[in-house]
Fold this protein.
Amino acid sequence: MSKRKTVLPGHMKKAIERVEELAATVDLAIEVVDARAPHASRCPILTRILAGPHLVTILSKTDLADPAATRAWKTSLADQGRIAAELPFGKNAKPGALLSSLDIPFYGEPGRMIKALIIGIPNVGKSTLINILAGNRRAHTGAKPGITRGLQLVKLPGGVFLYDTPGVINPVIRNEEQAHILGLIGCLQENMFDNQAAAMYLAQRVIAGGYLGLFAKTYQMDPPDTADPLDLIEALGRRRGCVQKGGETDLERACNILLRDFSTGRFHGLTLETPDQFQEE
């Protein structure tokens, strides 16, 4: 399919302009991506702008992702010369320990002020990270993308001053697959992607990624012996009572159950992308 333009709200356009202004002055850029889709949830326009500063990538929501895939992504990022860390670090994580793990230049030097910038598309977990780093609720968090709207300055331990930008969605969605992924991980508004198509894509990833056992465990059923995503969704529908008159599966209800369970974390432990998919890029 052709590339699709995403219309940027005014506050997002202003954020990009502000990032361009700050790029020459910050010591560190922290990029937050969703561990279930580290490639699709990047914001290339911002990472290109921030090619100069020390760049750290935070893989957020790792508790919802496949641990083996998360390790593979960290290795891939390290091979590219980029520092990668995981979020969450635990409910009792100490901000100073987390900051130290990011290998920030000059961190902890007496009298040294470090300016950092945190970037990421809507709903990848930037505000959650800031709250951990700041040690209290300094930023709004929520399930709807784009809840943080204005540029914020947060003082962190060790003389770090962090600029937070509102989530900036990619100006170009490269293909339908990326739209499905961004919709599944909550980075697109519901009216910007097709629910049933996204559910079918997720079912296909369950099959292709070797997650049929995880699917069966989640829904307390025998692992379906199928390579067809439609069969998988129909099996879920029957298991959850989504049956219409005449015995046919109510696909819309079954798809909505799968999407909701993935969104809320009830169905978790799978990753939608692997590093080897992007070795040629």
Notes: The first helix runs from residue 10 to 22. Residues 4-172 form a domain with the Rossmann fold fold (CATH 3.40.50.300). Residues 116 and 162 are 5 Å apart (CA to CA).
